[in-house]
Amino acid sequence: MTGPNEVFFAMCAPGLEPVLHDEIRALRFGKVERQVGGVHFEGQLRDARQANLWLRSAVRVLQRVDRFEARDADALYNGVSAVDWSRFLRPEGTLVVDARSRDSALDHTLFIEQRVKDAIVDQFRARTGERPSVDKDSPELGVFVHLYRDRCTLLVDTTGDSLHKRGWRRFQGRAPLAETLAAAIVSMSQWDRRAPLLDPFCGSGTLLIEGALAAAGIAPGGFRERFGFEHWPSHDAQEWQAQRDVARSAGAFPSKLIVRGWDASADVVESARENVAAAGLDGHLELEVGDVQDFAPRPGWNAWVVTNPPYGERVGDARRLTPLYRAFGQILAERCRGYHLALLSGNELLEEALGVKTTKVVPLKNGALDCRLLLATL
Questions:
Q1: 0.90 surpassed by pTM
Q2: What angle do CA 17, 305, 377 make, to 5 degrees?
């Protein structure tokens, strides 16, 4: 017998909300609503577990535990104290509190975090004589506090470490994409998962690996050792193991699919192969040593070129990179007619050197950097 539905919020990086919204709708969760910074949905805890396993563009999944007015410190303390925290934390457990405040009387986030922490540990101490401790590095429970116009929303983190930490990465590279952003870029490219997927600047292989995992129907969360909800006292380990086994047995790599990458550094290619093997894709992805002049896709492939070339302050000076972009633009025009392009750009001067007429430009964040995803049919 199941209880009433819970409210969850899947968080994502700015600009990825439409991708995440489509993913959550595909999982058929209830009352899906896109908002700034993520997507709300309703369901049972098993749905949150499913979201952690299968969402490719989300960074974490939060469960809302309460909402109440908090115009002063006492109201905040009393509201937090009204929640039964033994559902989510053991008396000897560890926690961390993260607060945000906007347009509220309580606007000092460190004070808010301290007050919320006090309410939680005081509850345990009064009930059991023990109290949880704070661990900012590896807490068993993350508590999120959002104050907006004096209304407090309390959420707990079902995820633990960010979902971009898939578990397959062995090699980072000089400027790696987060796995969640890479998966979203592949999705926004509208790759049909049948045509060849090509990356002439593959680096650590993140775009290709995330594309291949999606094409194979492999759960991105299946590589992880642990999620936040596994620490909860209410956690049903047997049910979770069955759910995880189903996810791990799902999917198969399409036999005729071509996924291929190039990089100018032999060392980088060798390290990227370690990532491919750790993702269980050995023998399915082809990685070659070669610079932009070696990028020679076959005529008639009608492939997708999805790539994150070096740009500006991240890995070099834009002026130095201009000839590279100019040469790549010429190669795309000469060798890739009819192809689709999705290119993450961090420098408008380099976009001009590329010389590709875009059909759509999507503003994105790559870490702290403002970027643009250029989409085009060549």
A1: yes
A2: 80
**Rounded Cα distance, 320 and 312, in Å:** 9
Neighbour order of strands in the sheet with 285-289:
285-289, 259-263, 197-199, 304-307, 340-345, 369-377, 360-366
Q: What is the DSSP letter of 220?
A: G
H/E element holding 277?
Answer: helix 266-278
Q: Give residue for tokens 């559902």.
A: 87
HSE-CB for 262 with a 13 A CA cutoff: 14
Torsion sign over Cα 135, 137, 138, 140? positive
Q: What are phi and psi of 246, to 5 degrees?
A: -60, -45
Rounded Cα gap, residues 108 and 369, in angstroms = 27
Beta bridge partners of residue 66, listed in sequence order? 154
With beta carbons less than 8 A apart as the criterion, state whether 288 and 269 touch.
yes
Which pLDDT score, from 0 to 100, does residue 130 have?
96
φ, ψ (nearest 5 deg) of residue 11: -90, 150
HEC-encoded secondary structure of 356-375: CCCCEEEEEEECCEEEEEEE
| In the predicted structure, residue 214 carries a pLDDT above the cut 80 | yes
d(CA 293, CA 290): 8
Q: Is 364 within 8 Å of 371 (Cβ atoms)?
A: yes
Alpha-carbon torsion 54, 56, 62, 64, what sign? Answer: negative
5-24 as b/e: b if 16+ CB within 10 A: ebbbbbbbbebbbbbbbebb
Strands 94-102 and 141-148 turn out to be parallel
**Three-state secondary-structure class, residue 103:** coil
First to last CA, the chain: 55
Q: What is the pLDDT of residues 172-197, one digit of tens each?
A: 877 779 999 999 999 999 999 999 99
Q: Quick one: pLDDT band at residue 297, thresholds 50, 70, 90?
A: confident
Neighbours of 348 (CB within 10 A): 12
- Report how far residue 231's alpha carbon sits from residue 139's, in angstroms, rounded to the nearest whole number: 10
| Residue-wise DSSP of 280-336 | T-TTTEEEEE--GGG--PPTT---EEEE----HHHHS-HHHHHHHHHHHHHHHHHH-
CA–CA dist 210, 218 (Å, integer): 10
